[in-house]
Amino acid sequence: MDSLQSHLGAESGLQLLSRLENRPSLIDLDNVIFESGLLPNEIVEINGDVSSGKTLLVTQFLAKCLLPKSYCGIDIGGLNAGAVIIDTDHHFQVLKLVTIMEAYIARSGCSSNSLVDANTVESIIKDALDNLTILHCYDGVQLLITFHGLKNILSCNRNISLLVLDSVSAFYWQNTLNNNGIHKMDLYLKKILISLQKHIHEFKVSVIYTKPLYFQSKVHNDSNVIGKYGKISRQIKLQKVLNSVNLFYAHICDNSNRKVLSYEIGNDGFHWHVAQEHK
Amino acid sequence: MARLCKEMNSLFSEFVLKNLRLCGFHTVVDFLEENPENLVRITKLPYKDIVLLRHNIIANFSAFQSSGKTAYNEIVTNSAMVSTGIERLDALLGGGILTGNIYEVCGLSGSCKTQLCLTIAMNIALSLKQKVYYIDAKLDFSSRRIFSMLEEKQIAETDVTETLKRIEVVRIKDLYQLFSFLHTLRENLAQRELESSFVRVIILDSLPAVFFSFLNDTNNEGIALKSQLANTMKHIALECHVAFLLVNLASRHFDEIENLPDPDLTVSSVQTEVVKPALGKQWLHIPSTRLLLKKVESQVHVSIIKSINIPLCSSCILNIKDEGLV
């Protein structure tokens, strides 16, 4: 069938559907980090030290992504999009997601509105949580097979626009044990990304993955990506300022730009020190 | 690694499997990664059967899928906050030890890590009347210490025996015994819902003791096994709603470090003393909450150095007394 397709330029029904359908946009996911918005098929890497807030940042993205744009005429400011999280590190906590969502709703000014009481907030959050699919993976083989299953999940849920993988490196070391050989970390990373993208490319979802700071080959080469898969469009590097209690830096690079922002971590997520006017 | 076998599906006949193996397809991943047309040629099965097999394998071997709402409800109904019985520590942890998580207690040698574990084990067995597993890898669990703590608290003799009975000490000599214990534990926890075997907290003292034999390994086998251990524990923690409390050593480094995240800052180097948890940088990312203990005279300073919901560097001070840490 593949050869037929390439000869005639035909496409499968699935491809046709995914070409025509419109998943919710993630342009407004985070105006501080993604100034020009997060586009379909983008791959974003978040790397950072221990406790620099990788999982927290991801949780924060999920909160915004899942919450509705408005509720009974009250503006909330979410994106009303679905999301999938492939959880390999098991640091992601649904309770934390709920806390962040609560804070988000409170900030949006709903709480001052007399129509919104605690019960309404709870039902907004429960509805939002329904947009999230959680996949717990416990070994590398399971992860690869889960990638195969994504096709099904994505074609059944038209509103999923975001896929999160936290983290990409969880099974690297076990893999070295099973395969009687050591892959370079960069190579392993690229392989994982390529096998992920192969399955989801036609669905045009954005991917955000996390990895620990140490996870790169000793001889690091940024620009050897050939072909359409395995290319990272943005990199966010989180770093704690030494000897500080709660001060961090985020280096954000995409193809053309590079910027450094400082932040601290509060109960309800990241607090950026600059760019408040973007709100 | 899941090998392809007859038991998976009736379509995998001897003939089909033999042909697959001849062409080098041994595992389910090999099967999935291959182009379906090639598989039709190799197995002589109709296309629709191959598609069926693929679906079947994906359904059986991919991660369990749950919606955020289900996960939330599950956590609200099944997970528990287990009080450590130490008031200040509970306050620091936001109520106690939350099931589904891995906690790590680290500190230099002699910083009361084991004392903390013994106190927590005793408190859970005494006040909450729950069974506690105490995995003893250093072979130095002291029931006498727990006994004297209970005596100091002036607990009636019958309660003392009951409490000691609830602390199940598991002696392990190496990593492989630990693995086999964890696998049995998982089966037990999954099967029995009896009150008597109700376990929320599993304590492991200590982690480095299990990994000492891998100190000089060049094949990264130790790292791989650490990662495998972590995944096994996380699986049990989430699936069976228990929490793990691990003891880890820490080491002290004196270093001159340049830290220049901001290009505008000028170069400055400071000599600092860094206390680092043992077991390497890969392990740093594993536990969801890490407590650092520091002994100062007759007090222990506990600070949070990794967590997703507790602000970092929050801390509390515990007193070392005859009845344990308070």
Automatic annotation (TrEMBL), chain A:
One GO-annotated biological process of the protein: DNA strand invasion
Gene3D superfamilies cross-referenced by the UniProt entry: P-loop containing nucleotide triphosphate hydrolases
Pfam families cross-referenced by the UniProt entry: Rad51
InterPro entries per record: P-loop_NTPase, Rad51_C, RecA_ATP-bd, XRCC2
Example of a GO MF term: four-way junction DNA binding
RecA family profile domain ranges (all copies): 18-217
GO cellular component: centrosome; Rad51B-Rad51C-Rad51D-XRCC2 complex; replication fork
Name used for this protein in its record: RecA family profile 1 domain-containing protein
Automatic annotation (TrEMBL), chain B:
One Gene Ontology biological process: reciprocal meiotic recombination
Cited InterPro entries: HRR_RAD51_Paralog (IPR051988), P-loop_NTPase (IPR027417), Rad51_C (IPR013632), Rad51D_C (IPR047323), RAD51D_N (IPR048943), RecA_ATP-bd (IPR020588)
UniProt-recorded Gene Ontology molecular function terms: ATP binding; ATP-dependent DNA damage sensor activity; four-way junction DNA binding; single-stranded DNA binding
UniProt KW DNA damage keyword: yes
CDD domains: Rad51D (cd19489)
Matches recorded under Pfam families: Rad51, RAD51D_N
Main location: nucleus
Ranges for domain RecA family profile: 78-250
Recorded GO CC terms: microtubule organizing center; Rad51B-Rad51C-Rad51D-XRCC2 complex; replication fork
Localization of this protein: Nucleus
Keyword entries, A-Z: ATP-binding, DNA damage, DNA recombination, DNA repair, DNA-binding, Nucleotide-binding, Nucleus
Membrane among keywords: no
Residue ranges crossing the lipid bilayer per the database entry: none
Gene3D superfamilies the UniProt entry points to: P-loop containing nucleotide triphosphate hydrolases
Domain of life: Eukaryota
PANTHER family: DNA REPAIR PROTEIN RAD51 HOMOLOG 4 (PTHR46457:SF1)
Family according to the record: Belongs to the RecA family. RAD51 subfamily.
UniProt name for this protein: RecA family profile 1 domain-containing protein
Organism name: Gryllus longicercus
